[in-house]
C-alpha cells in the first residue's frame, strides 16, 4: 500500500495529519490543545478527529520508524532507571547496545515484573530481527 493510499478519503492534506500526530506523540499536549494550535494556523480540525488520526496512524508510523532504525550489535545490556517527571516518579527500562545506542525502551508508572519480562522478550526478538535484516 503506497503512502497516498493510506490517506485516501482524508479531508486534510497528508502533511497536516502527520503534523498533528507528531504534536501529540512528541509533546505532552491534549487533543484539545492541538485543536487550538491548529485553529491558530487556520486549520479547523476537531479534537475527536485528532484522536482518530492518532489511533490510526501512530502504529503505522512506528512500523515505518523501526524499518529505518540503524543496526545494532549482538551484545546488549538492560538499563533500569527511576526518574522524576513533573513531580511523579517513573521507571525507565532501556535496552542499549555496546555503542550506547538505544534499541528499545519501556516507560512505566509502576514497577511491573510482567511488563518488564514482556519488554525483555520484545527487545531480544527485536535484536534478532535487526541482526537478520543486516545480512
Automatic annotation (TrEMBL):
Lineage of the organism: Bacteria, Pseudomonadati, Pseudomonadota, Gammaproteobacteria, Oceanospirillales
Keywords, comma-separated and alphabetical? DNA recombination, DNA-binding, Transposition
Key word DNA-binding present: yes
Q: Outline the extent of the DDE domain.
A: 74-123
GO BP annotations of the record are: DNA recombination; transposition
Name it.
Answer: IS6 family transposase
Q: Which domain of life is it from?
A: Bacteria
What one GO molecular function would you report for this record? Answer: DNA binding
Any coiled-coil regions, as ranges: none
